[in-house]
Specification:
heterodimer; A: Rossmann fold; 3 domains; five-stranded parallel β-sheet; 15 helices; 34% helix; B: alpha+beta; OB fold (Dihydrolipoamide Acetyltransferase, E2P); 2 domains; four-stranded antiparallel β-sheet; 3 helices; 17% helix; globular
Chain lengths: 451, 161
């Protein structure tokens, strides 16, 4: 096992990794920007080192300063968390070169999933269902028209290097296709440095359902069930739950098996997530794989009792998974609400500032992962995630009731949060019936209504 | 591995240094120890001399406040730190056998190399941004330094005089 691990991240995930290390008896090194001098992860770690000024490009993305810190302080592993350098194959490779274990997959696996068009093709070959579309990138308008004729409208134009909704266009008819290709290409080129595009059938009112996998370096891949992340806004997830409501066990098993096939196809190691779109007729299609720990991992931890972050570290150290698929049990229902420092009444505008009071909820079945405290100043340089509240219940209804109770207890002073938004969702009749899809917030939640 | 023990002499030296330079606040940090010194009664915010703000900051301090401080510590109330622009190992000389680039009391010109920081097997020469007298060497030769860590204090009042 490792002796000393550096966390190349900040916020709640840095705190989460420090907790896992402490339980495993590993010493921790926090790195921080000048804006995070008083952050919780800096206080909690055994050692802390300032690596740059506030902008992430000069600190949390500053590979030379992070690697220098790792070498100077003699760490033998680096955990990248999520975001920042977590899915940067070059970073994983540099760690490999200097014999520091990267807690995550090998560079080749990150790369295989980094290019969306190539990943799609690879999954198709591995027998994982993909959305009907172009086989690889489209090279010309004529080729795109041919693909469109085969898969039908509406379709979606996507950037190979893309993510987060940029470089995407929905096309409803033949007449719109050429213009959509042109604008998506310009957007993709400026956002990602590559104008490569591919086409997919547009799935209407899909659900976003993802499968957690865990793989060791001895070719064992397990799935730890599915999470429904359909409650999102502008491709930002807000509420996640497991198991996805209203789906049969047989369907979830098929989904799990497809996810295991996907991970095997790229020799995956560590914790990862395979995202699927599920249409109204119950077909599922591979969307993308996140080759890292995810924000919503506690949902799965609550449901299975498996500590994903600890296992990520253990398999990175070469340990074999101590359980097999049959040992993974799914008990009850778990929901996570992301509490962001954003104002839902003002179009979810981020609201950096000082948290004047902070009383997180507790009691049975409630878990809170946070780096916030009374007096904490949220810097304007990073994301607005303030806390994750996870509620467990024997059934979905119990979990919803418990989450309402927990959010009711949660006091955050000084900054607006997404708590009122979550209470609206939890009280929504469609949500309570499990009728969720990725445009749920747009269609079902009236943010202007007095709460 | 061990918890750092407090070296009282070191802390005394830091307090003396803060007093000598008439700094309102001084934080010195190593991997083993962090010491913050805040001096004097709370003063109105506008009167607090900020040393890190570059040459303009010292000159723009309100005259009234300057007057009081100038009396208590003539001459050296505007030391400027040279901080580490990167994470690495701090070396005072170009190689182990060579003499240090600068010693306390030396005069340095703007752009003059004062130390090297080794990062990723590369030696980066660090230059003084302002000219003046080296009032203090704060970092120890051969030790890790973090981003923004003060390495030297320069007394720019001697610059060009």
């Amino acid at each position: 096992m490792f002796r000393k691990l550096l966390i190349a991240n900040r916020g709640e995930i840095a705190v989460r990794v420090i907790r896992a290390c402490r339980e495993l008896g590993i010493r921790t090194v926090a790195v921080y920007s000048e804006a995070d001098r008083h952050a919780l992860h800096v206080r909690m770690a055994d050692e802390a080192f300032c690596i740059g000024p506030p902008p992430a490009a000069e600190s949390y993305l500053n590979i030379p300063n992070i690697m220098s810190t790792a070498e100077l302080l003699g760490v033998d592993a680096i955990h990248p968390g999520y975001g920042f350098l977590a899915e940067n194959p070059a970073f994983s490779e540099i760690c490999e070169d200097v014999n520091i274990a990267f807690v995550g997959p090998r560079p080749s696996a990150i790369e295989a999933m980094g290019n969306k068009a190539k990943a799609r093709e690879r999954m198709r070959q591995a027998g994982v269902p993909v959305i009907p579309g172009s086989d690889g990138p489209v090279q010309s308008d004529a080729q795109a028209l041919g693909v469109a004729k085969r898969i039908g409208y509406p379709l979606i134009v996507k950037a190979s290097a893309g993510g987060g909704g940029r470089g995407m266009r929905i096309v409803h008819s033949r007449d719109d296709l050429a213009r959509a290709l042109q604008t998506a290409q310009v957007e993709a080129q400026s956002s990602f440095g590559s104008g490569e595009l591919y086409l997919e059938k547009y799935v209407e009112e899909p659900r976003h359902i993802e499968v957690q996998v865990l793989a060791d370096k001895h070719r064992t891949v397990l799935h730890l069930g599915a999470r429904d992340c359909s409650i999102q806004r502008r491709h930002q997830k807000l509420l996640e739950e497991s198991p996805p409501p209203g789906l049969r066990e047989r369907f979830l098993n098929a989904l799990g098996k497809a996810a295991v096939r996907a991970a095997h196809a790229i020799d995956y190691t560590g914790a990862g997530t395979i995202e699927f779109l599920v249409d109204r007729d119950g077909h599922f299609y591979f969307m993308e794989m996140n080759t890292r720990i995810q924000v919503e991992h506690p949902v799965t931890e609550m449901l299975t009792g498996v500590d994903l972050v600890q296992w990520q570290i253990r398999v990175a150290a070469g340990e074999k998974l101590a359980m097999n698929q049959g040992d993974i049990e799914f008990r009850g229902h778990a929901i996570e609400c992301r509490i962001n420092a954003e104002d839902p009444a003002l179009d979810f505008r981020p609201a950096p500032g000082t948290v004047t009071s902070f009383v997180p909820p507790g009691g049975p079945g409630v878990r809170v992962d946070t780096h916030a405290f009374a007096g904490y100043t949220i810097p304007p340089y990073y994301d607005s995630l303030l806390a994750k509240v996870v509620a467990w219940g024997g059934s979905r209804a119990e979990a919803i009731a418990r989450m309402r109770r927990a959010l009711g207890e949660f006091t955050v002073g000084g900054v607006p949060t997404t708590i009122p938004f979550h209470l609206l969702v939890l009280d929504n009749a469609f949500f309570r019936r499990g009728e969720v899809y990725t445009n749920f917030v747009q269609r079902r939640i009236d943010l202007a209504a007095p709460s | 591995m061990d918890r750092p023990t407090f070296d009282l002499d070191q802390i005394r030296a830091i307090i003396a240094l803060a007093a000598e330079a008439d700094l309102a606040e001084l934080t010195v940090e190593s991997d083993a120890l962090k010491v913050s010194v805040k001096r004097g009664a709370p003063v109105p915010a506008h009167a607090a001399p900020r040393q890190a703000g570059g040459p303009a900051a010292a000159g723009s301090t309100p005259a009234g406040a300057m007057g009081d401080e100038a009396r208590s510590t003539p001459a050296d109330n505007h030391f400027q730190p040279i901080t580490a622009p990167m994470v690495g190992t701090f070396y005072r000389s170009p190689n182990p056998d060579a003499a240090p680039f600068v010693e306390e009391g030396d005069e340095v010109q703007p752009g003059q190399t004062v130390c090297v920081i080794e990062a990723m097997k590369l030696f980066n020469e660090i230059q003084a941004e302002v000219g003046g007298r080296v009032a203090r060497v704060l970092a120890e030769n051969g030790t890790p330094v973090e981003y923004g860590q003060p390495l030297f204090l320069i007394d720019p009042s001697l610059n060009g005089s």
